[in-house]
Design a protein that fits this description.
single chain, mainly alpha, 11 helices, 2 strands
Length: 264
Amino acid sequence: MRDITIGQYYPVDSIIHSLDPRTKLMSVFLYIVALFLVKNPVWYAAFLIIALAEFRCARVPFSYFLKGLKAIIVLLIFTFVFRTLATPGEPLLSFWGFEATREGLIKGISLTSRIALMIVEASLLSYTTTPKEMSDGLARACSPLKRIGLPVDEMSIMIMIAFRFIPVMLEEANDLMDAQASRGVEFENCSIFVKMKNIFALVMPLFIGSIERTSDLAMAMEARGYSTGQARSKMFPLEYSSHDKTAYIFSILLLVLAIAGRIE
């Protein structure tokens, strides 16, 4: 829990950081769409190279992302194993009544790679975009949906608050773990079952703390005159630059190549 970095902003000056949030949102969307369009697993190497190049341009160390990947590595392993064993086909290995197949291995690699690369790209978005920028970008990008009655502004505010709460809740969880450890509770040198039991004991204090924090935030917003459905001006209006145009062209080109590469 101390190493979770996904969802946290990485403050540094870079080309990626300076892009308009609408550009980054659309680029991530097109990247994920292209990722799920390709069928040949060889393409995932190209997507990984693109992601590494983006991390390089963003000046965010890829090791910083790998540090936070520990929290979801169990999900990736489970996805790979389940897909490998649950897909019928040519048998490769049998053990304990389960059978791994060649087709399952290929599909397991494909699905796990897609999920991992999707998390990489979404993490880069959170590393290079503040919650406020993301909220403004979502509100501007989805503004046409207001015509059909969708509360776009309220949804963007909810997303911004959710992203702001991630580091706060992680910090509170670490404080609770330190407090429990000072009272003799083990979180490191113990069995997995004891560790799970001790971790679950933190859920209720975290839940109560989040409810209290949410109530305080709601009262603070009301005290400052916040109300839904009101037009608001922006201190820093969103504007496209030449870098944004280049990013759009690159994202569209990637999508076109993915559509062209659907042949297995």
